[in-house]
Amino acid sequence: MTTTTHAECLVPGNHLMAGLLGTRDELLRQVEQAFPDEKIAVQGNRITVEGPDADRVVRLFDEAVLLLQSGQSLDNSTMSRTIDMVRDDVRPSEIMRAEVVRAAGGKTIRPNTAGQKRYTDAINQNIITFGIGPAGTGKSYLAVAQAVNALQTRQVARIILTRPAVEAGERLGFLPGDLMAKVDPYLRPLYDALYDLLEPEGAQRLLDRGTIEVAPLAFMRGRTLNNSFIILDEAQNTTPEQMKMFLTRIGFGSRCVVTGDVTQIDVPGGRSGLIGLEPVLGAVDDIAFVHLTRRDVVRHKIVADIVDAYEVAEGRAGSTQ
Fold first, then answer.
1. Residue 176, pLDDT score
2. Residue 242 Rama label (left phi>0; alpha psi -120 to 50; beta)
3. How far are the Cα atoms of 79, 110, 141, 195, 301 from residue 29, in angstroms, in the given order?
4. What is the model's pTM?
5. 42 touches 31 (CB < 8 A)
C-alpha cells in the first residue's frame, strides 16, 4: 500500500519562478512526467505536491532554486540531470556549484553530474586517475580543465597532453606532411579543449613556450616527466606495453589522468592496455578508477540515446555468442 504525502516548497521571490518553471511551464511539465504519481500545483510562489514521493519532488524544486540563486540557468538537460541526482539522493546544488577552473572570458567550468564530481574529486586527491566512460561524459575536457587549474595555481610547471596515434580506418602514410603533421588530426580534440579554456591566443603562447606540450604517445618513451600535469587521452587505443611505458614515465611532483572508452577500441588485435588494468592497479595507493556512464553524458540528449542503443545491441550480440 502506497502512502500519499503532502509537501510544499515556498520559492523565495517571484523572480525565480519563471526560471524554475521554464518557458510556458516546460520544466514543470518535465518534472510531472518524471514523477507521474505526484500531483503538483503552483499558486503564486508556492508549490504543493501530493503523492507517495512528494518529499523528493519538493527537494528537487528546492535544489533547482539553489542552482538559480547561484546564477545558473535551468534548461531541459540541466533539469534532467537534477532529477537523476535527486533520485540518487545526491544534492545537485553541491555538485553543480563546484568550480573546477575559471576559464578565459570568465566562463566557469563545473561538473554537471554526480559522476563528473567524483571524477574531478579523484583527480584532486590522487596522483593517477583513470576516467573510463562513453563519449560525451566530459572525460577529456574536465581533465584538461583540471590541468589548466593546476598550471594557473602553480601546482605544476607544465601540461603534457598525449594520445596514441592509432589508425581508426585511416592510414597515416596517406596523410600529407611530416610526422607531427600526420599525427596532428589525432591530437586535435586536445587542442580544441585548450583553445576553449584559454582562448586560441593564450593557448598558443603557452604552446610556443613549451609550457603546454601536445604530442603523440610514442614521443613519451625514455622520458621522466617531473612537475607536470599529464593527460593520456583515448587510452583504450594503447597496447599493454604502451600503457606500462606511459605509467612509468611519471616523475616527482606530477599528476596524471588517463581517459578512455572501452567500447571504442581501435588498436590492432584488440589488445587494449586499458582492459584488465583495474584489477592490477586498483589496490595501489594514490591511484583511482572512476567509471562514468550514460547518465554523465552532457552533450545533446541524442548522444546518450546512441550510447544506450549501442549497449543494448552489444548486449544482444553477447547473449547470442
1. 46
2. alpha
3. 11, 27, 32, 38, 18
4. 0.78
5. no
